[in-house]
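#struct-pred
JK: can someone run the complex with zinc ion? inputs below
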Amino acid sequence: MQDLKRKALAVLKKFYGYDSFHDMQYEVIEHVMNGHDAVVLMPTGGGKSMCYQIPALLQPGCALVVSPLLALMKDQVDALVANGIPAAAVNSQQSEAENRVIIENVFKQNIKLLYISPERLIADMDQWSAGMPISLIAIDEAHCISHWGHDFRPEYSQLGLVKRRFPNVPVIALTATADRLTRIDIGEQLNIKDARLFIKSFDRPNISLNVVSGVTGREKLKRIVRFIENHRGQSGIIYCLRRDDTEKMAQNLRSLGIDAQAFHAGMATSVKLRVQRDFINDDVQVICATIAFGMGIDKSNVRWVIHSNMPKNIESYYQEIGRAGRDGMAADALMFYSFGDVKTLMNFANDSGQALVNIEKLNRMQQYAEATVCRRRMLLSYFNERFDHDCGNCDVCNNPPERFDGTTLCQMALSAIVRTKEKVGFRLLIDILRGSRKSEVVAGGFDKIKTYGVGHDFSNAMWNAYLLQMLQLGLIYIAYEDEDHLKITDFGSEVLYGKRQVMLSRFYYDSYEKKPAKRRPQLALDDASSSDMALFEKLKLTRKAIAKARGIAPYMVFSDKVLMVMAQEKPVTKAQFGTLYGVAEAKTELYWRQFTSVIRDHLKGS
Ligand code: ADP
Ligand code: ZN
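RT: done, structure tokens with the ligand placed:
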């Protein structure tokens, strides 16, 4: 084996406890060690940090890491220090005296990684003159430099000066944003046009993808509660469309005994910080949030994400579900989708100032929600990635849709639309089909029409789902300019008059309940016996106690994955503990006694 690779693996084992590199990590490390610039695109959880941390540890001097978020900086420094790596941050939250001491320590070569905000780097770099021993410069969240990205930050715009100031120091830009324009822009803005581009697959195979359509209101809440009960003790995020919804959801869940908190941009900063901390420290299990939640969070043991409503586009959806399962263990994504969502989002899109683009994106999102083919294939093809097999870890793969001749069913709905003179919307149409006595139905005289009640055999959710399919297949459309009333297309008329046949996919939200996407066995928690699971829970408590005592987040002590391996391998000596997956040298010393004693007790008891 090459000398460099051997050294890199030794550092990986010593400081992180891992035995091998993930896909593409070593290639980047080698490239940077040879003094070249790099742009690295990897999904969340892909292991970007290793790409600059290992070169930093292998070389003399200190690596500068530019990061946009103070909270994230602190977490990253804490995690490195917990692994025995000398790291620090300079930022505006510390006193100038503290910052000065840290910079002096960098000059004395006592620090291997220095986290710094972009504005600080730009302001201070000239006064460091040539004396600062800089090994490399890493720009994290590099998409923030691009106007094309979804998260442009003015503080990033001057970072192009860095390469001019330190022409011989390798620059490595990292991001989880895949889109093509942003990625080209990063190299240009940073003045590293010749940088090699490293792109890793954006697939996140450990996240199971599930969609439930047509379920709303109280029924939706019931299902969310059931889902959380099936994920007892596991951290998760519920995304809602509006601020109000986050508070209502959190309140509803709390009233049912679930430990939930709301989080949205309208809350006071101090409250937001507290909620975020509680979540990171495993002190609150569920966060009900608008999209504002997640950016500043590095927590690796988020086990599930629910979208209470369909998100506005696939980019947001993918970013949000990506917050689950960063440790590589099985995680679940569940999205609820109903006609009401499409309507609300259509209004948002129309008012957005970029209506055409946003409506197109919304349409793609809707196609995903209604997919009758493997959802992962759809997602990855959206991101222009080749993926030529079914994933086996989405609800479509696990419940292949059953097709049936839906002509009669469609005719019922179409006929009702005609008889109401195309003057009713989705909800009212369903009420009419089901023979509801609601005042709106009676007041409109709809209980007198011939099709009133013909569809009473089908539930609300079923009609919702079939009408959505009719919409998708082009039998009907929504006249947004006419109070969202449903109208019949030419194709719809042909079906109504028996000239065309329609195949529908059997409504299957209930089969999700019976048979959710299976977890991939090699990543699953459920490889473990129930005794192992009981030990895993005990180890989680030990982890939490240690984290409290040390003032760090539980996931920084060990990830869920490491605890799971520990529960299965049951080390009882220091030597066994020290060679375990994910146990760095520094952590062996610190923690072996506490964990092995819990394991020994467990073995005695069982
Ligand atoms: P990203 O920044 O790309 O989201 P991280 O660098 O935070 O990803 O890594 C995600 C998780 O994977 C972390 O828990 C990290 O410790 C772990 N990890 C990274 N590289 C490896 C590896 N080679 N072997 C095992 N685990 C790894
Ligand atoms: Zn699939």
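RT: quick notes.
The first helix runs from residue 3 to 16.
Residues 403-507 form a domain with the Arc Repressor Mutant, subunit A fold (CATH 1.10.10.10).
JK: thanks, will look after standup
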